[in-house]
């Protein structure tokens, strides 16, 4: 029995045998053997049978490489036949023996002979009568009597289980769970300790921890005169294991066996280095260990289990770190719908920002603010969100949109705020005028109705199902500490506001990798000077409008720098097209005309003339910086003044990082560097104090990557903006891709949504080119990514491989990224993934 | 005197001397010498003076490497002083001698001593009195007497000319004409044959061809007792050269000198291998040749001159091909504003499609059709054009738009149709509601007013200035024939309609490289089924709508195939987003609701739901092909049925090329290839006839280039769509770039508009990667480009270098491309550019 060729169950049993636990005689068939069986060639059956006691009943269980790849169900009691019935009746009574035979006939008929299961449902009787009817039914349907030869029975069972594994449905199912195309199946043939008979006989399941909480707690049931896992469904007849006020226990019924079982469980935990769920049988008072699998566990439980194993010295802290799936960690950061809660699903969308939120429906940002003022939690429902909705999003407990994908505005902001968010729920009918939301089945929800969104699954639910709170407990912090010790790539957070920055610090981000400044201009007191600036006819008028914004921006940055206490803060200068700040509806245009004291027709014309066909590819980023240089001048000044204001005696000095967006040519960087340095000199002179800053480039056009060798000498850092870079490499707008992305992924045109998982082939080649060329031209340059991909474990692996210094992601993805990065470093050091049991 | 170091004038004079023509004694100063002079260090002046007859007057002329890089004006009569005045008065009379001295004093004062020119304008007298006043004025202003030492005079002249060349203005001017930063200036010092004096004395200019037409015709003037080029401005006193009914001629006045001059001109044409303009002097009956420069010439004249030189055996046909600037050829294909015509410019835009057009202003496509129906040529004036305007564009003689750049819809269609077009004329105020166009100076033009647009310069002019017709004459065809013989890369045309295809053939395109099919769906009888198709809820309804379009598409393709007579026709399947076919205004929505028999609210909702943030990056191209496969099915069927319908006995079979747009992943190609092959099989079966076709990919996303090795095995050809590729590589929408592109180019952020000249650094690297990887994976693959860059000579050079098989461009750019490609091949063969004289 050699593990990688026989599967995890075989491997576990082998180890139990080596630990001298009382495991019934077992033979494991390798993947190759089982594959050969599926092809029609059986192993040496007489030799196989001869490995067991003559007359023993056998069971066959699947043993694939990973337990959760599935496999055919176990078949018990192989070897039962008319002759054995008679002899067994003497041991355990006629009815029990008949029951046992009947169960075998049923299992064999359905899973091996592939007869219609309804056949046996109709029998309606147990015991000897039921058995007789079942045997007759079998004979009629199969057109032969039930096979009596144990060797033939076993052969047929093996053949049917081998073939089931190779069927199309089973293959697709396990591939969906990550199995390779050629994943093999091993089979374990084991002599049965039937759990039926004279003396104390029965079977049960035990584990030492609670599956939901992960806390130490002997958990499981035992049922006399039962087999397999029947104890778990045995109701009131099943015993508790430990002494328990709720009812009888195995500890009382069979204290010695129980003590032994507890000892064995402890041995298994220590020696298999994992919390195991143990299947056991007591046969006439004697304990047998039949099987062990990893305890099923919630993410929270997995984390506590791993930490406790490490604290108990059973595994190393590094191994504990390897045992937690990074993606699962994000569950812990958010409230979730309780595992067993009833879910009345009224619609589905893209799970854009994890967590569950329950609230009253509101259809506008203003209503969201009003609802929150009334202390009524609300879900903001919009066709899509825009920057004007951000304050409403802050007020709401969750966001639901009709349009958009993983990187739509709602999704990005939602993840940044840790706000549960379901987007692209196109099959719900949104009527924003009538303020209704209609499910596919015609159920109408109105403003004020309570719904729940599950941003982890993408479901939209009626009412308020039970939820469980976020779980940032001691074990979480211990594990993340171990992860940080192992990590060799830094993790920063994308954070735009003081609140974001506080979250980032809370999740131990090592700085801010992307602070978008444009959101700062949507607040009510800023929008008017912003619009005046846009409408200004001369640089002087523009400067006048910007002078009003300067102290506000300075305050923004001062706060951020203070919260981050000397950690790096990378500020992206103004990026979006100016028309995003202008109204388009009649009402908004009239308001604006009033505010600017201009005729509506003038305002309308100006607004229209600023419109763009493809705003993503228009006058934004450094293009604005060069054509309307006053904006960047103001921002640079605000940053530098804030740098001085936030620097405190004795504390590490603030060294702001200024990032230029949408660069496509080195001259853009050269020109703006000159201008920003001039502002720095002016501020130094005015304040009579010195400071330093770092200037860098957001590499988000393919051309910036290709020309990195030219650009790098002008930059202290290069941060790859993988959202835009993906858009441009594919020629695919993230906001518009939602309409066909699911078709594309389901047809296999794209393996994954490239806005979700970094396209290492195409976008990745550009990243690698950009990293290599910029490093060669400027060896001291700092490299990073700051797109949505920054929080994705596969993408972090890629970034680490191409030699980036850090990745930056939404604050709420920081723990995921820390853990994923730690695992990459540990894997590189040779620390293995946990053995799959 | 060695040419590349002394400039073209020096070189020409050297050759005239070697041909034993009577050139006065000449000394040439090299670029280095002149540069040293500018630094303040004069050459050995006594030695220089000693090279000439003692007491001779001298002139100094500039000699830069290319004549049109400019340079300081010539200065004549150096050496004149009070003493020389007296002796010269004996030879040529006191007044003439004084006049000569006066001219030198003036020239010296203004250009060498840099005195105020007004000083001499006020003198108002000529002859001895004028001279006396001028000398006095000089002395007062310069605070020293007029220098009398000829050596000092010459030294000052040399110094001032050398310094003038190195001034900032002169440098910027010549750089704008293509001179390198370090372009040098040579100076030619020549003994004067003054053209004044006893016997027949005078000067003149002669050339053997007409500068405008290029036809043989002795052209020029001669003026007795004159210097330099005074004969050309001498009015009625100047003689014709050849006997002429309009007046007296040199032939009559000095038959021997004229005969000799004609002989010398013939020698110069044959031996300098070019049509020269000759400056000559007759000094007491003796002919002197002072200078020769290339005859100034229109493009049409240049072409005729080159062809005639080759036909006369003076140069080779290959050299003739090298002598024509490809870009200039496009002038010949269009009517132009006459060179001398008065231009009342009312606005300026981007010169998007060359040629001049005069017509009445109309503000809508419908008005354009009506105007043309009344036989009144019209200029279509729009804010921007969209596919719905195409029929109006066909009707108009020119298009003027407020928005857009070189690759906006109006520009692309305009160039395709050979329709003069000025776009992005943002400083004209367009009021489409009031139907007025207002110039910056406030002049208002209304519907029906006549304007002229100059698509060659970008000017918009009032009224109807004189124009000259297109010049596709015999010489043009002869030269293009020679070019085609030399060329080693094929040239195809982008052509969407039978009219385009006919133009393409007229310009000898070797097939159609890009036939866009979407324009076909905008015609009135097609738009309704198209919209029904878009609104269809099931594949079956879609097919029903498409079934109406099938015979129309089949007819489109049949016509194209027939016109192209077996030449390749590359058809790009449907590309634009579907919402382009839907109305957005209230009126259009109501019409559509009526046509589809649906409530307006439904129609509006559907139209809105199809809207996109960035249509360029949305659901279009193969993405539509995969998600709404019925469209491509219909188009493939139409193409295949047309293939059979257009194939004739005995003629080469039609082999259509089908191109998939906007590919970004190989699986897109794989899936659609399967579908299209299935359609081909079905058509073959139904018709009982066989045909072949080629399937290829439009590589227009960065990812398609990067992943070319994967894609190429599924494609017969790969055509790089450089418009979209440029947009995505820069992250820059061509439709939105107009707002800042001119700022960007003028600030040197981009060297050139990348939509105009291929960005070989960035976009070019992707092309090179795509070409190399696809060739490696599929050596037989055909490679080409089919963007707007196809007609640009630099871009063609790049395509040839990376091994493309053909370039495809607008029909009206085909001759430019043929000539440019020929020159590249000839240059590679070692045929040199013509010597610059």
UniProtKB/TrEMBL annotation, chains A, B:
The keyword Cell cycle is annotated on this UniProt entry: no
Keywords attached to this entry: Kinase, Magnesium, Metal-binding, Pyruvate, Transferase
Keyword Magnesium applies: yes
Top-tier EC class: transferase
Required cofactor names: Mg(2+)
Alphabetized InterPro entries for the sequence: ATP_grasp_subdomain_1, PEP-util_enz_mobile_dom, PEP_util_C, Phosphohistidine_dom_sf, Pyruvate_phosphate_dikinase, Pyrv/PenolPyrv_kinase-like_dom, Pyrv_kinase-like_dom_sf
Residues of the signal peptide: none
Pfam families listed in its UniProt record: PEP-utilizers, PEP-utilizers_C
Source species, domain of life: Bacteria
Residue span, PEP-utilising enzyme mobile domain: 376-458
Sequence ranges assigned to domain PEP-utilising enzyme C-terminal in this UniProt record: 476-824
EC number(s) per entry: 2.7.9.1
GO MF, one example: pyruvate, phosphate dikinase activity
Family recorded in the similarity comment: Belongs to the PEP-utilizing enzyme family.
Role of this protein: Catalyzes the reversible phosphorylation of pyruvate and phosphate.
Protein name listed in UniProt: Pyruvate, phosphate dikinase
């Amino acid at each position: 029995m050699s593990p990688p060729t026989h599967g995890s169950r075989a491997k576990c049993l082998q180890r139990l045998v080596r630990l001298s636990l009382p495991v019934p005689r077992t033979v494991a068939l390798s993947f190759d053997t089982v594959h050969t069986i599926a092809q029609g060639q059986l192993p040496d059956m007489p030799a196989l049978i001869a490995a067991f006691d003559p007359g023993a009943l056998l069971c066959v269980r699947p043993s694939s490489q990973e337990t959760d790849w599935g496999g055919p169900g176990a078949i018990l009691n192989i070897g039962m036949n008319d002759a054995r019935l008679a002899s067994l009746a003497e041991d355990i009574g006629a009815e029990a023996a008949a029951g046992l035979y009947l169960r075998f006939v049923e299992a064999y008929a359905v899973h091996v002979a592939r007869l219609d299961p309804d056949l046996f449902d109709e029998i309606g009787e147990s015991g000897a009568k039921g058995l007789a009817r079942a045997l007759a039914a079998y004979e009629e349907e199969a057109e032969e009597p039930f096979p009596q030869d144990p060797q033939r029975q076993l052969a047929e069972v093996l053949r049917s289980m081998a073939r089931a594994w190779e069927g199309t449905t089973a293959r697709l199912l396990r591939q969906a769970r990550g199995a390779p195309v050629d994943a093999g199946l091993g089979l374990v043939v084991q002599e049965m300790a039937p759990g039926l008979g004279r003396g104390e006989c029965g079977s049960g399941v035990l584990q030492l921890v609670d599956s939901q909480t992960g806390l130490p707690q002997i958990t499981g049931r035992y049922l006399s005169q039962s087999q397999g896992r029947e104890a778990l469904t045995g109701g009131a007849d099943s015993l508790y294991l430990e002494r328990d006020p709720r009812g009888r226990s195995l500890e009382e019924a069979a204290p010695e066996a129980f003590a032994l079982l507890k000892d064995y469980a402890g041995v298994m935990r220590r020696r298999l280095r994992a919390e195991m769920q143990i299947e056991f049988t007591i046969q006439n008072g004697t304990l047998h260990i039949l099987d062990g699998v990893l305890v099923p566990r919630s993410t929270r439980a997995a984390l506590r289990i791993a930490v406790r194993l490490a604290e108990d010295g059973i595994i190393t802290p590094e191994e504990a770190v390897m045992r937690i799936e990074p993606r699962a960690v994000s569950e812990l950061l958010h409230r979730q719908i309780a595992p067993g809660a009833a879910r009345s699903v009224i619609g589905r969308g893209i799970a854009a920002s994890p967590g569950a939120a329950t609230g009253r429906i509101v259809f506008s940002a203003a209503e969201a603010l009003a609802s929150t003022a009334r202390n009524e939690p609300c879900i903001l429902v919009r066709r899509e969100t825009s920057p004007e909705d951000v304050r409403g999003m802050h007020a709401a407990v969750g966001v639901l949109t009709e349009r958009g994908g993983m990187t739509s505005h709602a999704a990005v902001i939602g993840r940044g705020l840790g706000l549960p968010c379901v987007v692209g729920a196109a099959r719900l009918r949104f009527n924003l005028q009538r303020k209704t939301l209609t499910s596919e089945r015609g159920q109408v929800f109105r403003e004020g109705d309570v719904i729940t969104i599950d941003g982890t699954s993408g479901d939209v639910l009626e009412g308020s199902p039970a939820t469980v709170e976020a779980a940032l407990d001691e074990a979480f912090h211990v594990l993340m500490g171990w992860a940080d010790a192992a990590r060799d790539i830094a993790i920063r957070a994308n954070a735009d506001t003081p609140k974001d920055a506080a979250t980032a610090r809370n999740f131990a981000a090592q700085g801010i990798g992307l602070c978008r400044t444009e959101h700062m201009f949507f607040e009510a007191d800023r929008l008017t000077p912003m619009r005046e600036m846009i409408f200004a006819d001369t640089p002087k008028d523009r400067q006048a409008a910007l002078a009003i914004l300067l102290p506000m921006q300075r305050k923004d940055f001062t706060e951020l720098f203070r919260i981050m206490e000397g950690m790096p803060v990378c500020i992206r200068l103004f990026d979006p097209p100016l028309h995003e700040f202008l109204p388009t509806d009649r009402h908004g245009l009239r308001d604006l005309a009033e505010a600017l004291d201009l005729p509506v027709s003038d305002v309308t014309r100006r607004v229209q003339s600023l419109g763009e066909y493809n705003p993503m590819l228009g006058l934004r980023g450094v293009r604005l910086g060069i054509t309307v240089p006053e904006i960047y001048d103001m921002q640079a000044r605000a940053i530098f003044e804030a740098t001085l204001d936030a620097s405190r005696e004795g504390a590490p000095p603030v060294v702001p990082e200024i990032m230029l967006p949408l660069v496509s040519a080195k001259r853009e960087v050269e020109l703006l560097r000159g201008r920003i340095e001039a502002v720095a000199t002016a501020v130094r002179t005015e304040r009579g104090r010195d400071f330093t800053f770092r200037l860098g480039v957001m590499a988000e056009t393919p051309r910036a990557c290709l020309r990195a060798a030219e650009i790098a000498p002008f930059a202290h850092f290069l941060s790859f903006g993988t959202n835009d870079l993906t858009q441009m490499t594919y020629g695919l707008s993230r906001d518009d891709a939602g309409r066909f992305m699911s078709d594309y992924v389901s047809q296999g045109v794209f393996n994954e949504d490239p806005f979700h998982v970094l396209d290492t082939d195409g976008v990745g080649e550009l990243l690698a080119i950009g990293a290599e060329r910029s490093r060669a031209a400027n060896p001291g340059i700092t490299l990073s990514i700051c797109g949505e991909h920054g929080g994705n474990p596969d993408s972090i692996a890629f970034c680490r491989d191409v030699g980036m210094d850090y990745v930056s992601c939404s604050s709420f993805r920081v723990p995921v990224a820390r853990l994923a990065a730690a695992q990459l470093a540990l894997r590189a050091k040779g620390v293995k993934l946990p053995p799959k049991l």
